[in-house]
Specification:
The protein is an alpha+beta fold. Helix content is 47%, strand content 14%. The protein folds into 3 domains: 114 residues, Orthogonal Bundle (Butyryl-Coa Dehydrogenase, subunit A, domain 1); 108 residues, Butyryl-CoA Dehydrogenase, subunit A, domain 2; 127 residues, Butyryl-CoA Dehydrogenase, subunit A, domain 3 (Up-down Bundle), CATH 1.20.140. Strand 2 and strand 3 form a beta hairpin. Helix 2 runs parallel beside helix 5, helix 6 runs antiparallel to helix 7 and helix 8 runs parallel beside helix 11. The protein contains 13 helices and 8 strands.
């Protein structure tokens, strides 16, 4: 394990200057946006909002200018993302494409793939989902069974993905599929593909969650023909590419800001004169939030340096999920306000929503058990 995995990393001044303009934009654009919708944040889908961000140049911040990005770097993207999430903006439409699919294509894609996909991602017009988990596999990606077999100049896809966020809204999926016989080494024989979800033979079936929303999906591949240019990166190197991609997915501020709307309504409901318990707990939340933010920024610095901080990113996600999931419970201890799906005030409705959504926080992006296995290996314990 490297000693300096979480070296303090300050946001560069040129990136920090974006914050004021972003806050002004959000204040105007979301002036009448209710707290219960802000609670959905990076699960809230609004294509028009994403396209407005694209017109501002706030998508593809780390992508080259040649493909429509601003080439401003990972810290600039961090500032934008942090402000969007803190405000509870509806960012789901572009989120996965901007966070990980775009950088993945930029790193491993062919020039033709970059020309085809990256400009539309930067405009907020092209939406991606991630096809990793499968039935009976969960977060154990090495056990996937869905296949891509050679068929002339292309590929034939068969199998099923599950827990695929936003597949029902997405244009494309970056899918991890088995392209070779299962090897003695569990992580060999897999490849990644860019799959057009409008192709014949693909069925997307939404999974309704406890709060009544449809964010997760099942996706079925029934003898789907994919042209040869669907392969991204190197055949058989899918595992290495996926671990690099997961560092983007697991380390960002969305891993500890999902319950931010509830923190805000809780503080508003407590008011300016908290009792001793309320003041102490809000102080603890603030300290933990600051710590998680600094850890996330340390991972951002590693990504900016071209590293693959899988271990550190797993720490951020695991600790961030614990933090997010504790907030609804804490809110009920500090205030005598019951959760209400209908009626009640803003705090009651936001509390009800996040109580139902919080269990999913430690599912999406890798379960707690898988993350702690990665952390144990990073510490040399297994």
């Amino acid at each position: 394990m490297a000693i300096n995995e979480f070296t303090y990393s300050k946001i560069p001044a040129e990136a920090e200057t974006l914050r004021v303009e972003v806050r002004q934009f959000l204040s105007q654009t979301l002036s009448d946006y209710p707290p219960v919708l802000r609670a959905q944040s990076w699960m809230g889908f609004d294509a028009h909002f994403s396209q407005a961000l694209g017109r501002k140049g706030w998508l593809g911040m780390a992508l080259p200018k040649a493909y429509g990005g601003s080439q401003a770097g990972f810290f600039a993207r961090y500032v934008i993302s942090e402000e969007l999430l803190a405000a509870g903006a509806p960012v789901s439409a572009h989120w996965i494409a901007d966070r990980q699919s775009g950088p993945l294509i930029n790193k491993f894609g062919t020039p033709a793939q970059k020309d085809r996909y990256l400009p539309a991602i930067c405009r907020g017009e092209s939406y991606f989902c991630i096809g990793m988990s499968e039935p009976n596999s969960g977060s154990d990606l090495a056990s996937i069974k869905s296949t891509a077999t050679r068929d002339g100049d292309g590929w034939r896809l068969n199998g099923q993905k599950v827990w695929t966020t936003n597949a029902h809204h997405s244009h494309y999926m970056i899918a991890l599929l088995r392209t070779g016989e299962k090897q003695a080494a569990r992580h060999e024989g897999m490849s990644q593909f860019i799959v057009d979800l409008s192709l014949p033979g693909i069925t997307v079936r939404p999974i309704r969650d406890l709060a009544g929303g449809e964010h997760f999906n099942e996706v079925f591949f029934d003898n789907v023909y994919l042209p040869g240019d669907g392969l991204i990166g190197t055949e058989g190197k899918g595992w290495d590419q996926v671990t690099a991609e997961l560092a983007f997915e697991r380390s960002g501020p969305e891993r500890f800001l999902s319950s931010m709307a509830l923190i805000k309504t809780m503080i508003d409901a407590i008011g300016s004169r908290p009792d001793a318990l309320q003041a102490a707990e809000i102080g603890r939340l603030t300290a933990r939030l600051a710590t998680l933010r600094n850890m996330s920024l340390a991972v951002t610095a590693q990504l900016a340096d071209g590293a693959n901080p899988a271990w550190a990113a797993s720490c951020v996600k695991d600790l961030g999920n614990v933090f997010e999931q504790e907030i609804p419970e804490l809110a009920q201890r500090l205030l005598d306000i019951e959760p209400r799906q209908q009626g009640g005030g803003d705090h009651a409705r936001v509390l009800a929503y996040l109580m139902q959504m919080a269990p999913s926080f430690s599912l999406r992006g890798g379960t707690r058990e898988i993350l702690r296995g990665i952390i144990a290996r990073g510490l040399g314990l297994r």
